[in-house]
Structures are given as structure tokens and as C-alpha cells.
Amino acid sequence: MADYPLTAEKIKQEFKRAGIRFVVALPDRVTSHYLLKGILADRDFHAVQVCKEDEGISICSGLYAAGHKSVFMMQYTGFLDSINAIRGVAVEGHFPVCMVVGLLGKEPDIAPTKSKKYGVKIIEPILDVMGIEHHLIERDGDVAQIAPVIEKAFASSSPTAILIGREPR
Amino acid sequence: MMKRDEMLKAFARQRKNEIVVAVYTAAQEITHIQPNDLNYTFVGAMGQGSSHALGLALGRPDKKVIVFDGDGSLLMNLGSLVTIANQAPKNYVHCLCENGCYETNGSVPTPRAGQIRFAELAKTAGYKKTYEIGDLDEWERKLPEILKDEGPVFVTLKVEPGEVYPENFPRLYNIEYREKFRQTLAKS
């Protein structure tokens, strides 16, 4: 696995570096096999599995109000399905919801907006129009930006999106 | 059937230091009936009250969290019953104000209004204890037990509109109130 461009364990350790204990998740094909399963098996994390993605936006908000940092892992399809909760709770409500969004089907090393996959191509423009910062994580070298991104979201009480561009292994 | 504001007033008389999450009309009413810095009305989107409450309950297991949800709202987020039961927070009390309609949106009836046993759905999902309460006396009598029960607890409350309170949606989602809630909770 040493030559694989993106490592699940590095992302998991980066979550810990960011002070994350609660990981809210609905399995995403990009991240479920290595990253989410690794988190579920790690007792440093409290995983909250949800039935639908908009629940996760609100659970992270309730956790924030109770004094905790969390991340919410989902597939881009779930992001699209939760737009109203993201709009009303995270953006207009100024809750620092940190979304980790798997871009299923994105071609390696191709910018999401250049993807041939329609659902992937529209994600960054939607985030831009909603005023949500986003950051593409595609290689191990990108991972170190995750903790500062989470820190900034909580400091500014704003949502953020960490886009996972390929399967971490 | 109980008047919703009377039900909330009866609750307010027995409330100690619990967090209260309320949605829509119940949220408008609780801010008038019992202003309290631990009132959480910042749900932001319909159906989301039970999920905000789960985050609060998991984040503060030492504090009882009471959510006054609506039947139209819960129908939008039925999966949350399973998510909540799966986490099984002992401090979670899910009160459903069942009025059979979308009261804020013109009082149009909900699908299968009055024919769904929400407490049975909660029981099947895995809530530890469920109640169905149809009158004020019973609510006042059972409330001490409900507040002591190990959660998650689900309570169907058959309600109808009572006194009309002024609507103030900007207040419900106000960030300054939200920050005051956070600070108060952090100290309590």
C-alpha cells in the first residue's frame, strides 16, 4: 500500500490532530472500505452512523452547541440530497459543519469541474454559490491541510467541505 | 387531546435544568412560556430537531435533553428514530406533538393523519420506553417518571392549538441566542 497516492491512516491521524472525536457518517463508496472502517474500529473515535445525510448536518451542529468538534463523512450524492439542511443549518445558521465528501467516479488527477461525471462536475460550483470553502484531497501531500481547514471552520463558525478525490487506502 | 401551550406550561412547571429542543409552533410557544438560555430553537430546516437533539445528547451525556418535535417534522426524518435508537443516549426524551397537520404551513393534514402509531414506530426502531398521552392530567402525572426514565424515551402527545403566540422566526434562528445557549451549557 506504500505506493498508493492517498492513505486512509494519514487522514484518520489528521482527524485526531484536529481534535475530532465524533465522526458522523453514512457509508460513501470512496471512503468506506479503508477510512470509515478504520474509524469504526478505532476507540479514539465515537462514530455516529446516520440513515440519511441531512441528519448528519444537524447532529454535527448539536455536537458543536455542546462543545465538540466533529466531521461528517458522506458521498457527493448525499451532499446533493442534503442541500436544504446545509443551507438552513450550516450556512444561514453559521454552524461549523465539516463535511468530508467522497467524489465517487472522479477521474484521478483531473479537477472535479473537468470531470466527465455530471454529479462530480457540479459539486464545487454549488459550494461556491453557497459560499462554502472547499479543499480537494487527492494525495498524501494534501492531507496536512485538513486540520487547519477544520480549525478555521470552528474559528469562523462556518461550514467547510473536504473533497476526497480518490479512494484512500 | 390537550392544548399544546397548556402541555408546555405543565412541562415548564416541572422543568429543572434540562436542555429543551423545540421546533416550529412549539418553539415559538416555549420562547414565550418559559424563556430560558437552555432553550434550543436553532434547527434551521424542517425535520431536523430530533437530530440536533441527538448531537446535544451525545455531546452532554450528563444533561437531559427533551425534544418537542412535530408529526410533520418527524415524517420528514423518520430515519432519525433508528439513528437515535442505535446510539441509545440515556438522556434523550423525544416528545412528539401530534396535531395531524402542518400547522405552520396552513394546517394542511399530514399523510394518514391520526392513523399512525408513532410510539410503535419508535418502539420498533429500538427506543427503550414509549408513552402515548392524550390528556393534560395524564401528562402532568407521568412527567416525573418520563424525566427519570433511562432513554431513549418516546412520548406521543396528542395536541391541538391553544392560545396563539406571536411568531418570530428570526428569534428562533438567532445566532446571538445560539451563542448564549452554548455559553450557558458550557457553564452548567
Please describe the structure with a list of short key phrases separated by commas or semicolons.
heterodimer, A: 169 residues, alpha/beta, six-stranded parallel beta sheet, 9 helices, 6 strands, B: 188 residues, seven-stranded parallel beta sheet, two-stranded antiparallel ribbon, globular
Order of helices and strands of chain A: HEHEHEHHEHHEHHE
In whole angstroms, how far apart are the ends of chain A?
Answer: 7 Å
Rg from alpha-carbon coordinates of chain A: 14 Å
Largest interface by Cβ-Cβ < 8 Å: A-B, 34 and 31 residues
Which parts of chain A are unreliable, with pLDDT below 50 for 5 consecutive residues or more?
A: none
The total count of strands of chain A amounts to 6
Output the radius of gyration of chain B: 15 Å
Order of helices and strands of chain B: EHEHEHEHHEEEHEHEHH
Order of the strands making up the biggest sheet of chain A:
2-1-3-4-6-5
> What structural category characterises the helix and strand content of chain A?
alpha/beta
Tell me the strand percentage band of chain A: 15-25%
Residue-averaged pLDDT of chain B, rounded?
97
Characterization of the model:
The complex is a heterodimer of chains A (169) and B (188). Chain A is α/β, with parallel strands linked by helices and 169 residues long. Chain A has nine helices and six strands. Chain A has helices at residues 8-17, 32-40, 53-65, 76-81, 83-91, 118-121, 123-130, 140-143, 146-156, and strands at 22-25, 46-49, 70-75, 98-102, 133-137, 160-164. In chain A, helix 2 links the parallel strand 1 and strand 2. Chain A is globular. The chains are: A alpha/beta (169), B alpha/beta (188). Chain A binds chain B through residues 22, 46, 48-52, 54-68, 70, 84-85, 87-90, 92-95, 157, and chain B through 40, 42-45, 47-48, 51-60, 77, 79-80, 82-83, 86-87, 173, 175, 178, 181-182, 185-186.
